[in-house]
Amino acid sequence: MSQPYAIEIRNLHKHYGAHHVLKGIDLDIRPGEVVSIIGGSGSGKSTLLRCVNFLEEYTGGEVLVNGRMIGYGSSVTGEPYRLPEQTIRESLTDVCMVFQQFNLWPHMRVLDNVAAPLRLVKGVRKAEAYERAQAQLERVGMGHKAASYPGQLSGGQQQRVAIARALTMQPSIMLFDEPTSALDPELVGEVLNVIRDLADAGMTLAIVTHEMGFAARVSDKVVFLAEGRIEEQGAPRDLFNTPQSARLQQFLTSWNERQGSLTMA
Amino acid sequence: MIDFNLLAEHREAILAGVWMTVKMSAGGISLGLLLGLALHGLRQLGGPWLVPLYHAYVALFRGTPLLVQLFLVFYGGPYIGLEWSAERVGLVGLALYGAAYFAEIFRAGREAIPRGQIESARDLGLSPGQTFRVVLWPQMLARCLAPLVGQTVILVKESSVLSIITVAELTNVAMTIATQSYSMLEPYAVLALAYWAIAIVVAATGARLERHFTQYQCR
Known about the structure:
The structure holds 2 protein chains of 2 kinds. By secondary structure, chain A is of the alpha/beta class. Chain A is 39% helix and 25% strand. Chain B contains 9 helices and no strands. Chain B has helices at 4-9, 11-45, 50-63, 66-76, 86-111, 115-124, 128-158, 170-181, 185-213. The interface between A and B is medium-sized, with 29 and 22 residues.
């Protein structure tokens, strides 16, 4: 038997009431692969990512992580039913998400933010949890801020802490949901550097991003989403240099124009 | 002229009244806080029954005067076999009444916390119980303390209504002294001062707690 995919998405659908957001997504991500998901706002890219860790309950198709179905089981008759919350949590221990808004807990010091999940979820003793948390903070260059509160940090620093917090849980897959979209331009680089290090270390990454240059450099595969469907996917070189679909051409042109206007200013 | 002898004469009755007010308020408010928290928890569980039930409770107890609620139970209760002492009716009445307000304060505190913090907790594997205890509750407490203290002071003052169903608390004592001695000024002046003193103690305690729980917000 071949090695299972890290993430396997089959005919994924998501409805919000009458609003059909994802219209049949098929996507495979191999272990160690870095996949960037791009597309206009409202194209469904964040929703797609959030279906993988079940922050959104998908309404059709299936999502498998390391071969395990996420969120739903099927009864003897083949009818899908929603799994209990605890089972879902257990099936997602290999996946951690980094959010656009960082989502640190403001009332806890940086070190406690990173150590708390270790203690609560994995039952690691306090001293060891702190040690491991500190190590991950060092890894993202935030060791010196362990005693600060999140509100005392810049956005880029907060995002690096959020990444350290996720890393401490030792996931094999990391999901990034527009990790730099809430940052001031001069802080984007420090976060992208950390993500690139993870990619170099062989971690499986799925990244929703507007940073085209970064996506081109770091990805094995780029997926372009439009109106809830995968319009085009492939190696970054092909996708960015010779886009096939009119929509992607349009998307890249408008992106290039924005970049161009910047260099002229 | 102010007759201080009158107060000295009734010293014991007044102190007993103060004690009864403190007992009723502290008991009623503590129970009310617990019940308010439980109500908030039920609402968070959600579902087709609990949420409307919650809103019905809040509407009922906030929508009618405490005095009327007390009358209903104390004077109406015996007709349906509920013969509680005035003290018990007062205590439970304050708790049920206060709980509606406390629950709404907790709800506001909870809703002010960005959803993303709950999502990251869930993503990292925290159970809903852990998320509440570690992520939500400390922040709710910090945000809720000021309105909770305000509501507590209001309830202490509202406990004066218990005098009307014959609970021998401070207001009841003051009224009795006033009618017996035909002096209106002294008993009611003492009454006002006593409530004021209690309110100051509550507010000062609240302010101290608030400083403790909002440390993280200092930049």
